Automatic annotation (TrEMBL):
It comes from Paenibacillus paeoniae. CDD domains: ArsC_like (cd03036). Pfam families: ArsC (PF03960). This is Arsenate reductase family protein. Belongs to the ArsC family. It comes from the Bacteria. InterPro entries: Arsenate_reductase-like (IPR006660), Thioredoxin-like_sf (IPR036249), Tscrpt_reg_Spx/MgsR (IPR006504).
Length: 123
């Protein structure tokens, strides 16, 4: 297996993130971790990840998270511009759905084993 270096933006206490890291390593990927709160992606980085992954910005929000509920974002997001949403995400790492994995060519958000097998399985 060839080594592929991937960066995972994750929260170390998150069980889903731990499972994702384990899966990535099992598939032969070299994994670089990045703490989503201590080293939160900037609005520019998030925009680049969205473009790279061809994703909708809604996919980046951790809708089941405490901060999302506290800020009442379910009702507020519809009236925000993409730039405002990106700035909001960049201002609070816990608002971002995790884990985000990228090798600079592809991006996945969240963890689903079948998706990981498809995207990250051929290291």
């Amino acid at each position: 297996m060839a080594d592929r270096k991937v960066t995972i933006i994750e929260y170390p206490k998150c069980s889903t993130c731990k499972a994702a890291i384990k899966s990535l390593k099992a598939k032969g990927n070299e994994v670089v971790t990045r703490h989503i709160v201590e080293n939160t992606p900037t609005a520019k980085e998030l925009k680049e990840l969205l473009q790279l992954g061809g994703l909708d910005i809604k996919k980046l929000f951790n809708t089941s998270g405490e901060v999302y509920r506290e800020l009442g974002l379910k009702d507020k997001l519809a009236n925000m511009t993409e730039e405002e949403k990106l700035e909001l995400l960049a201002s609070h790492g816990m608002l971002i759905k995790r884990p985000i994995v990228t090798d600079g060519k592809q991006v996945t958000v969240g963890y689903k084993e079948d998706q990981y097998e498809q995207v990250w399985g051929q290291a």
